[in-house]
Each structure stands twice: as structure tokens, then as C-alpha cells.
Design a protein that fits this description.
Blueprint: E1 2-6, H1 11-20, H2 23-26, E2 30-34, H3 44-54, E3 58-61, H4 75-96, E4 99-105, H5 128-143, E5 151-157, E6 160-161, H6 167-177, E7 181-184, E8 188-189, E9 192-193, H7 194-205, E10 206-207, E11 210-211, E12 217-220, E13 227-228, H8 229-242, E14 254-257, H9 277-285, H10 299-309
Parallel strand pairs: 1-2, 1-3, 3-4, 4-5, 5-12, 6-9, 7-14
Antiparallel strand pairs: 8-13, 10-11
Helix pairs in contact: 1-7, 3-4, 4-5, 6-8, 8-10
Bound molecules: NADP nicotinamide-adenine-dinucleotide phosphate.
Length: 311
């Protein structure tokens, strides 16, 4: 089967590259990973040409415009990459019976809800990035509305970290330089490992060299547990100290602050908690829960492992 991965140099794209090298996913498949230089997602002609030339049976879209604050002044490019591009990929999949695996975000919610968000909760993004990601979700759903072939999965994650720039790396860099840090403590969510998300995604859509017969839809995909940015910073610093890093900051010298004390261009949701019940049920139906190596590994265990692997 031909598998096409967009965004190969992003955090999630790199995780997919690694995951797809596992023999169970690699054997019998022709895998093409592309970046911006191979296909600029703001150019519909380039996307269509690539799809028509390579003829993928599985499209994994790990690419996105992810500059949340910059998006406030670059709405056109954010919508082109996050909404129009996945819409084109989905139209291809719906026409030719392919599968598309796409990724979205907790930022499609305004975060004013008490408790965890379900997939059926109405979207109400606060900023341009979230609006563009929500438009991408809608474009995919609409592309499949009248199709009887093909499948789509939209996995919504939160607070992603992997091989690339992310909050954990920023905190550890600052902890090397400063004796005290201030970190927001009133936004809540689940840090999601890109490696974990790529593993879940591959199992959901791939059965060796066959497409898996999962139920099309939007699914929340985050590891068990929740924290705040402050809680994540404390754990990252403690894990680094345990691994022998020389830092100026300890968890005790991290000061919790409120969102209002750390203004940003784009407003973020205060509550990013996502229920994964729907995905759990689907994975059980497919007999995958016991096969997925890290499905039940809590976020804090995954963060500790990640930090220990950083050089
Ligand atoms: N990061 C988070 O905290 C987070 C949280 C929840 C959900 N998500 C979602 O998870 C997915 C992966 O995020 P990530 O953190 O892995 O993103 P990332 O590290 O920022 O990577 C995004 C990739 O998309 C590529 N890209 C951007 N614009 C492009 C264009 N015009 N043409 C071609 N490629 C383009 C980038 O290429 P360049 O390097 O050339 O720009 C980069 O390789 C996204 O759908 C994102 O919305 C992310």
C-alpha cells in the first residue's frame, strides 16, 4: 500500500517516520514522507499533483501551521494550511477510497466548560489557529459526507511534545540559565507525547499492509491523567535533576502564576481536558487495547521517560 506522510520534519512527522519503520508497519508498504520543499501545503496545485502522482491509499497529515500567536496576523496562510489543505486531501480520499489520518487540537474549544470535553461538545475556538483547525476538521467531515468509500480519523491532542521545539524543552533550557521560573498554573490539560500519538494513530488506521476498518470520526487522543503547565514544568525539571542534569532551577523555585500574569497575543483555553472514552471504545471494538504498548501509560510517566532521553 502507498502511504503518504505530510509534515515529515515536524514533531509528529518525525514520530511517524520512526513508528512506520517498525517491521509490522513497514513490510508491504511504500512510504513517502514529504516536507514543505516537496509540497507546500499553501499551494493546492502542489497537493493535487502529489496525490495524483503517488496515489496514496493512506494519507497521514502531520503537517500544520502551528504558530498560535503569529496566526493572529497570518490568518490566510493558517487557513490555507490547516483547513484548505486537509480538505483537498480528504476529497481525494473520499473519491478514491483512501484513508486519511489527520490531527487536531484542544484549541477548537474555548475551554469554559467545567469537566472534560467530549467529541460531541460544540467547538468555539478563541483564536485564529483554533478556528483554522476547526475549519480543517469540518472540511474533512464534509468531504466524506456523500462518500461511500474511504475513511477518516481526526485525532485531537493537546500539549504535544516530541523531537522539536516544545514547552518541556523551553523550560529545561530556561532552568539551566535561571534560578527561578514563573509558570502558568490555571490552564489544565494532558501533555501528549508525539511518539505515543503516532503509535496510537498507526494502530488505528493500519493493519500491517492493510487499511484497518475503523469507524470514521473525530476522536480525542491524549494519555491518561492531567496537569497544569506549572505541574508539567515541575515534573520536567525534577526528571532532569534525577537524570543528573546541572540546573539552576529546582521544582521548589518554580512559581505558579495565573494566565492573566502572562499575556499572549492569542487567548488559550483554560480547560483543555479531553475525554478519550470514544477512542477507548473504538480500540476495544478493534481488539487493539491489549496490543497497543503504551495506550494506558500516564502522561507523567511518559514525560519522565522523554526527559531522560533528551541529551
Ligand atoms: N504542538 C502542539 O502543542 C499541538 C497540540 C495539539 C495538537 N497539535 C496538532 O498536532 C499536529 C502536529 O503538530 P506538531 O507539534 O508536530 O507541529 P510542528 O512541529 O510545528 O510541525 C508542523 C510541520 O508542518 C509543516 N508545515 C507548516 N506549514 C507548511 C506548509 N505550508 N507546507 C508544508 N508543510 C508545512 C512544518 O514545516 P516547516 O518546518 O517547513 O514549517 C512542520 O514540519 C498538528 O496538526 C497540530 O495542529 C499540536
Amino acid at each position: 500500500m502507498n502511504i503518504l506522510v505530510f509534515g515529515k520534519d515536524g514533531q509528529l512527522g518525525r514520530a511517524f517516520k520512526e513508528q512506520l519503520q517498525h517491521s509490522s508497519f513497514h513490510a508491504g508498504n511504500t512510504i513517502k514522507l514529504v516536507d514543505r520543499s516537496d509540497c507546500d501545503l499553501s499551494d493546492s496545485y502542489q497537493i493535487t499533483s502529489l496525490l495524483n502522482n503517488f496515489r496514496p491509499q493512506l494519507i497521514i497529515n502531520a503537517a500544520a501551521y502551528t504558530a498560535v500567536d503569529k496566526a493572529e496576523s497570518e490568518s490566510d496562510i493558517a487557513f490555507a494550511v490547516n483547513a484548505d489543505a486537509p480538505g483537498l486531501m480528504a476529497k481525494y480520499a473520499a473519491q478514491y477510497g483512501a484513508t486519511i489520518l489527520h490531527f487536531s487540537t484542544d484549541y477548537v474549544f474555548d475551554g469554559f466548560k467545567q469537566g472534560v470535553h467530549q467529541e460531541v461538545d460544540p467547538c468555539s475556538p478563541l483564536g485564529v489557529y483554533g478556528k483554522s483547525k476547526e475549519a480543517g476538521e469540518r472540511a474533512i467531515v464534509e468531504a466524506f459526507a456523500t462518500s461511500v468509500v474511504g475513511r477518516y480519523a481526526i485525532l485531537r491532542a493537546s500539549w504535544l511534545y516530541g523531537d522539536g521545539n516544545n514547552f518541556i524543552r523551553s523550560i529545561l533550557r530556561l532552568a539551566k540559565e535561571r534560578s527561578a521560573l514563573q509558570v502558568i498554573d490555571d490552564q489544565h490539560g494532558a501533555p501528549t507525547s508525539a511518539a505515543w500519538l503516532a503509535e496510537v494513530g498507526c494502530y488505528l488506521v493500519l493493519d500491517g499492509s492493510q487499511k484497518r476498518q475503523f469507524t470514521s470520526g473525530v476522536y480525542h487522543a491524549v494519555p491518561p491523567g492531567e496537569t497544569s503547565w506549572y505541574g508539567l514544568a515541575c515534573l520536567a525539571v525534577q526528571s532532569a535533576l534525577d537524570a543528573g542534569w546541572q540546573l539552576q532551577t529546582s521544582p521548589a523555585s518554580i512559581v505558579p502564576i495565573s494566565t492573566s500574569e502572562y499575556p499572549s497575543l492569542a487567548q488559550r483555553p483554560m480547560n483543555s481536558r479531553l475525554s478519550t472514552n470514544k477512542l477507548q471504545i473504538e480500540l476495544e471494538r478493534l481488539g487493539l487495547v491489549s496490543k497497543l504498548p503504551h495506550w494506558n501509560t500516564p502522561w507523567d510517566e511518559q514525560v519522565s521517560t522523554y526527559v531522560k532521553q533528551l541529551s
